Amino acid sequence: MKPISYVDALNSHYGSMGFPPYEWTVNDTAPLFRLDKPLNQCRVSLLTSGGISHCSMPGFDPDARNDHRLDALDEHVDSADFVINDSYYDHSDAEQDLNCVFPIDRLRELAAAGEIGSVAPRFWSGFMGRIYNRTKVIEESAPAFVAKLKEDAVDILVAAPA
Predict the structure, then answer these.
(1) N or C: which terminal CB in the chain sees fewer CB atoms within 10 Å?
(2) Which residues are bridge partners to 53 per DSSP?
(3) pLDDT per position as a tens digit, 78-112
(4) What are phi and psi of 85, to 5 degrees?
(5) How does DSSP classify residue 4?
(6) Residue 47: CB partners within 8 Å, gap ≥ 6?
């Protein structure tokens, strides 16, 4: 059996919906480093790009393109108070347990057990949809997000794409 070419299949699928071929970003200069303190002393935050909005906020456009919206969510939000607005994936399991794609309860459990130092004061949901304008991500959206993580003294960000 011949393996499925993921990139070709993805381009074919989205090409049939009018999207241009995706140009994958390759970053050979991204710094990787060891933590300078133990995990049980680190503050951790979470970002999902799965079109997950808190019930108090407007829903995401399920067919969004280049949506750089980023919702800040209080660390104490209830995982039952979210809606998933994304046509990109089957979210039936996540509708039963949000932690499949946005593991906020699991992160809290790790903090309570002392496995991580603490949960950051904000979680994040955003960068929803197919993002083709990488320049904006690199020059505007990502640096603005990093500044917010620094405001919260975040040591580790768990990115949970859907």
Answers:
(1) N
(2) 83
(3) 999 999 998 878 889 989 999 999 999 999 999 99
(4) -125, 85
(5) P
(6) 123, 124, 125, 126, 127, 145, 157, 158, 159, 160
